[in-house]
Design brief:
There is one protein chain. By secondary structure, this protein is mainly α. The protein has two domains: 64 residues, Arc Repressor Mutant, subunit A; 37 residues. It contains six helices and two strands; from the N terminus they run αααββααα. A two-stranded antiparallel ribbon has the order 1-2.
């Protein structure tokens, strides 16, 4: 399910993974990528709950976690805003890939692939996408 009518970023919910973790990851990714800018309003707990079709307590946990991690700030009478911090250094951006890379490694090991084979496949995909992005 791809969302985004109320959310200022996209979330592609996958079964088997906690919704809160998926939304928190998507929000952090949007901040690091510059899709969510400092000072930009973040949806309210109610808006998150309605848009994602989740319990308001889960939506509250999402906002609270993002506040605790410094991604959002809450302001009385204004609501939640994206915190005014630099949009992530290279290390922070790379850390966002950790879970994705772990899944790739697990699948590669299940298939019996070697590190060299995985790296070659990764390099081929990188080159393929780089050509598509070029003018």
């Amino acid at each position: 399910m791809l969302l985004g009518q109320v959310l200022p970023f996209s979330v592609s919910l996958k079964p088997g993974l906690p919704i809160a973790e998926q939304v928190i990851f998507a929000a952090k990714k949007a901040v690091v990528a510059g899709q969510l800018k400092a000072g930009q309003p973040f949806p309210s707990v109610r808006a998150l709950s309605l848009e994602l079709g989740i319990n308001p307590n889960t939506a509250h946990r999402i906002v609270a976690a993002l506040v605790a991690e410094g991604v959002l700030i809450t302001t009385p009478a204004v609501g939640s805003l994206v915190a005014a911090h630099a949009p992530g250094d290279r290390q922070e951006r790379a850390a966002l890939l950790g879970a994705e890379l772990e899944r790739v490694v697990v699948e590669a090991k299940k298939l019996g692939l070697t590190l060299d084979e995985v790296q070659a496949g990764f390099a081929a995909q990188w080159k393929k996408l780089t050509r598509k992005d070029s003018p």
